[in-house]
């Protein structure tokens, strides 16, 4: 499969994978599960102003009645980058020209006696694993922000139906701090307290940006100039429209969506640049020996110059070289 | 950060490490802490007075008492200090253990940095790195808090709970709120003056800046330290700190202590300061050990500049007369190598420019070192590869008087006949260089003749063509003769000290030394021969310099038209000195 000198024996990769990566991944998934599906973390009870016009938008119905239902959204944003990475890696592996550079970048790991981990497997697992981790991490970020701030959705007062009679709400600027004057459905109210930042926006922009970074840094085809931009801009525009749809359906404020965009972008950029290093191999590009500055050397080395003639000719030489180039 | 510059070295001595730490770093941190105390805990500085609108909704939020805060300021400070410091210490400890296990104690191929000896104490890399990173972190925290406080005082924006604690008495105003909704007078009737004061300081949020600084700093530390073999460890740590910082800032919003804008701008400020400190202040420090890159290039540049400056100081100390000559030469010389000239004379011109660059350094070498260099075994020369060592060498201060003493001793003992030539040798060449070029040339030629006569047989063949070529050349192309004296410039500092110790000895010892030196010079000169090693190149150089002839110098000088006279004087001076030293050494080797 691989070139002989490209095989590397490593006994630590499998234990490292099991005891570090998988544990971290499991912890992340567990935390996301607690945030999403249980009420371990109680949302902060935020107060509001009497008759606040910003919070009295009409109630658009439950999430399932939305234009983009959560199920569709989650499936699409998890499946799209995975499919793109799968197709890209496999095609890179089977196209001959790209395969050589791929093998040059990535070593085949030989663990134990039998198991070969070839570059294809390693890259797919790495990229998709990091993507999944980032997805859950973004979810945790979003949920933490929502729980901590307890920012109210635009339709909060509509579903809350506050009982103003108990408090004096004469003045316009009266701030109501106790949240238990609501008379509406408790479950809907609970949902209406989670708004900042927008989860849809953050997750969709994260997924789209990850896929975009993969496409731009991996696919280097000269034949088709439009395929790459169309693919990238298509995914990004879809994510953008998903965020805007939240605003137009009165499910989030504009600031929530923007914060979600920023959050998802930051996570995707960090993972793409600092963790998987722009989807290059672990070895990275071979470091080129840097030519030293011809001016710096003689100055530095002055006290030990044996023969200035030599340095002079060397300088002339390098100077003429630089002149030519 | 001097300490940051002195990395990637094998264990070595540093005189400046401790004083620099005590007298530079510590006062800076201490002064920032003191000013922070005045800004934060005393009301020496009043926030700016800003008006507000009647019944402003955004300023009417409820007031959360200071002791009911979710994250009080003290807890924030301790957390923002302790969590990154602890993680940096743990990380550095793990790194040190791993490195010492993998590569042995002495720092391996990728070893971060050697240990340093300063004032008898040995600071290993773990201690240094930890102190540096934690120190930069502490300083950054102080700086961030300072910046935040200053902006808060300067803007004086109101916190969301301002109207709650202020309880403005609107009847104090002459007009009604409808007529004049913007109030600039101080009409607060609230009892809690401290709360009102704190309500005037909100932009940007202190919590947000401090937590963002700590998170970004420690994230960048993790990002550079944790290797890539584990893909998920780094993001987990980074995300954990980021979430903590985000929560810390967001609680300020939910508790109505700050507006959202304050918190977001606070995040930006803190992150910006951290990014700046990491990339500039401790930049080389945080980046992991790796192959030398631009940072080390910059380090070399620093060292070079330092070396030059040190040399200049000694130079000016010794010869205050010559100061007017040195700096201008360097100033002119510096920008010119950058300008690439594609004319036919370009290479020649550049060569002369290089001479120009080198010229101001040579008086030192001749003045202080040539005398002592040969009194010592040359074992120490390899250590000169170390630029810092060379730097130390150049700094040796005591040589001037000693060298003169030795020169005079030696003069009186061994040179009776050559009264004519000697004063020129003893006196610094650059003193007379600007004086009268014509007479100098004559003297030069005289000396060369003597040289030719006295060298006779033992002249290494590599020297011959250069010497013969010289009379035909213009004054500027004289640098080939520097071949012989160049090895003499190899003076390690130990050499100079030992030479100073030697000087009170009797004349016999001195004479013996000089004899030895002469032999060695001959050997060295022979040794230089293979290094020249490229006769066509040599000839080409000479031919090139010959081709313009005597007028060539002027032609090139008109090329760089501005400073012809000073250039020519500078070009000549090294050659004068060198020829003088050639005469000295080679003439008196057979004398004894």
UniProtKB/TrEMBL annotation, chain A:
Membrane topology according to the record: Multi-pass membrane protein
GO CC list: neuron projection; nucleoplasm; plasma membrane
Positions of the Phosphatidic acid phosphatase type 2/haloperoxidase domain: 128-272
InterPro entries: PAP-like, PAP2/HPO, PAP2/HPO_sf
GO molecular function terms listed in the Swiss-Prot or TrEMBL record: phosphatidate phosphatase activity
Keyword RNA-binding tagged: no
The family this protein is said to belong to: Belongs to the PA-phosphatase related phosphoesterase family.
Protein's recorded name: Phospholipid phosphatase-related protein type 1
Provenance organism: Loxodonta africana
From TrEMBL, chain B:
Recorded topology in the membrane: Multi-pass membrane protein
InterPro entries: PAP-like (IPR043216), PAP2/HPO (IPR000326), PAP2/HPO_sf (IPR036938)
Predominant location: membrane
Pfam short name (any one): PAP2
Domain Phosphatidic acid phosphatase type 2/haloperoxidase: 134-278
Keyword Membrane: yes
Subcellular location field: Membrane
Compositionally biased residues, Polar residues: 311-323
Gene Ontology terms: biological process: phospholipid dephosphorylation; phospholipid metabolic process; signal transduction
Highest taxon, organism lineage: Eukaryota
Keywords: Glycoprotein, Membrane, Phosphoprotein, Transmembrane, Transmembrane helix
A molecular function GO annotation: phosphatidate phosphatase activity
Chain intervals for the UniProt region annotation (Disordered): 311-347, 423-481, 548-592
Biased composition (Acidic residues): 438-456
TM helices/strands, residue ranges: 20-39, 70-98, 208-226, 232-251
UniProt keyword rRNA-binding, yes or no: no
Biased composition (Low complexity): 560-573
One Gene Ontology cellular component annotation held by this UniProt entry: plasma membrane
PANTHER family listed in its UniProt record: LIPID PHOSPHATE PHOSPHATASE (PTHR10165), PHOSPHOLIPID PHOSPHATASE-RELATED PROTEIN TYPE 3 (PTHR10165:SF14)
Family classification: Belongs to the PA-phosphatase related phosphoesterase family.
UniProt-recorded name of the protein: Phospholipid phosphatase-related protein type 3
Organism per entry: Loxodonta africana
């Amino acid at each position: 499969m691989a070139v002989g000198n490209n095989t590397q024996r490593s006994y630590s990769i499998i234990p490292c994978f099991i005891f570090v990566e998988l544990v971290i991944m499991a912890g992340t998934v567990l935390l996301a599960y607690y945030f999403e599906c249980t009420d371990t973390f109680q949302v902060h009870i935020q107060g509001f102003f009497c008759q606040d016009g910003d919070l009295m938008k009409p109630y658009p119905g439950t999430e399932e009645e939305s234009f983009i239902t959560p199920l569709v959204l989650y499936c699409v944003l998890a499946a799209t980058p995975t499919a793109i990475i799968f197709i890209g890696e496999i095609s890179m592996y089977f196209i001959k020209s790209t395969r050589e550079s791929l093998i040059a970048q990535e070593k085949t790991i030989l663990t134990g006696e039998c198991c070969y981990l070839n570059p294809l497997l390693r890259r797919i697992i790495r990229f998709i694993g990091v993507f999944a981790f980032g997805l859950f991490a973004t979810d945790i970020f979003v949920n933490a922000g929502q729980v901590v701030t307890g920012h109210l959705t635009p339709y909060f007062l509509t579903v809350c139906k506050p009982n103003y009679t108990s408090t004096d709400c004469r003045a316009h600027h009266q701030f109501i701090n106790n949240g238990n004057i609501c008379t509406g459905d408790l479950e809907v109210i609970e949902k209406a307290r989670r708004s900042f930042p927008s989860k849809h926006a953050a997750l969709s922009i994260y997924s789209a940006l990850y896929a975009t970074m993969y496409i731009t840094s991996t696919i280097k085809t000269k034949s088709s100039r439009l395929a790459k931009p169309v693919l990238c801009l298509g995914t990004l525009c879809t994510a953008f429209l998903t965020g805007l749809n939240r605003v137009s359906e009165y499910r989030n404020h504009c600031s929530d969506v923007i914060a979600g965009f920023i959050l998802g972008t930051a996570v995707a950029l960090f993972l793409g640049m600092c963790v998987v290093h722009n989807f290059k191999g672990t070895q990275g590009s071979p470091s080129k020996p840097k030519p030293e500055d011809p001016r710096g050397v003689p100055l530095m080395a002055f006290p030990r110059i044996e023969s200035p003639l030599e340095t002079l000719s060397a300088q002339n030489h390098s100077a003429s070289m630089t002149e030519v180039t | 950060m001097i300490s940051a510059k002195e990395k990637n070295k094998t264990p070595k001595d540093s005189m400046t490490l401790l004083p620099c730490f005590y007298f530079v770093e510590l006062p800076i941190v201490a002064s920032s802490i003191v000013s922070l105390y005045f800004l934060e805990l005393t009301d020496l500085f009043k926030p700016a007075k800003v008006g507000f609108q009647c019944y402003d909704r955004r300023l009417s939020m409820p007031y959360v008492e200071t002791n009911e805060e979710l994250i009080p300021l003290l807890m924030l400070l301790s957390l923002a200090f302790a969590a990154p410091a602890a993680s940096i210490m743990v990380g550095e400890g793990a790194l040190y253990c791993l490195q010492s296990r993998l590569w042995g104690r002495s720092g391996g191929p990728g070893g971060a940095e050697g240990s340093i000896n300063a004032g008898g104490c040995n600071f290993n890399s773990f201690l240094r790195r930890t102190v540096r990173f934690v120190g930069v972190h502490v300083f950054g925290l102080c700086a961030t808090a300072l910046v935040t406080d200053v902006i808060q005082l300067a803007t004086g924006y109101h916190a969301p709970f301002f109207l709650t604690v202020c309880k403005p008495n609107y009847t104090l105003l002459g007009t009604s709120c409808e007529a004049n909704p913007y109030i600039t007078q101080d009409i607060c009737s609230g009892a809690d003056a401290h709360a009102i004061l704190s309500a005037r300081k909100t932009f940007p949020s202190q919590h947000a800046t401090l937590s963002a600084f700590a998170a970004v700093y420690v994230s960048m530390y993790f990002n550079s330290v944790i290797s890539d073999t584990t893909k998920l460890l780094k993001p987990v740590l980074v995300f954990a700190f980021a979430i903590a910082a985000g929560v810390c800032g967001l609680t300020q919003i939910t508790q109505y202590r700050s507006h959202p804008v304050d918190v977001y701008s606070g995040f930006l400020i803190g992150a910006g300061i951290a990014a700046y400190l990491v990339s500039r202040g401790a930049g080389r420090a945080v980046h992991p050990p790796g192959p030398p890159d631009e940072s080390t290039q910059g380090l070399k540049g620093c060292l070079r500049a330092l070396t030059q400056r040190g040399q200049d100081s000694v130079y000016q100390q010794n010869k205050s007369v010559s100061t007017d000559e040195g700096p201008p030469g360097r100033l002119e010389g510096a920008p010119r190598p950058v300008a690439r000239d594609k004319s036919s004379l370009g290479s020649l011109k550049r060569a002369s420019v290089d001479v120009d660059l080198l010229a101001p350094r040579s008086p030192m070498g001749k003045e202080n070192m040539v005398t002592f260099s040969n009194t010592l075994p040359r074992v120490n020369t390899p250590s000169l590869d170390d630029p810092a060592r060379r730097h130390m060498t150049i700094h040796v201060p005591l040589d001037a008087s000693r060298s003169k003493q030795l020169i005079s001793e030696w003069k009186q003992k061994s040179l009776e006949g050559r009264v004519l030539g000697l004063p020129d040798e003893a006196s610094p060449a650059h003193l007379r260089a600007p004086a009268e070029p014509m007479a100098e040339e004559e003297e030069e030629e005289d000396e060369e003749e003597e040289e030719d006569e006295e060298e006779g047989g033992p002249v290494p063949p590599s020297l011959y063509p250069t010497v013969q070529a010289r009379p035909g050349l213009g004054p500027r192309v004289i640098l080939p003769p520097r071949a012989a004296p160049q090895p003499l410039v190899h003076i390690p500092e130990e050499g100079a000290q030992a030479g100073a110790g030697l000087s009170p000895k009797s004349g016999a010892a001195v004479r013996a030394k000089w004899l030895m030196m002469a032999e060695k010079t001959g050997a060295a000169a022979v040794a230089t021969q293979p290094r020249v090693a490229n006769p066509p190149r040599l000839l080409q150089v000479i031919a090139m310099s010959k081709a313009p002839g005597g007028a060539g110098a002027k032609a090139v000088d008109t090329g760089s038209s501005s400073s012809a006279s000073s250039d020519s004087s500078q070009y000549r001076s090294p050659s004068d000195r060198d020829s003088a030293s050639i005469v000295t050494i080679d003439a008196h080797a057979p004398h004894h």
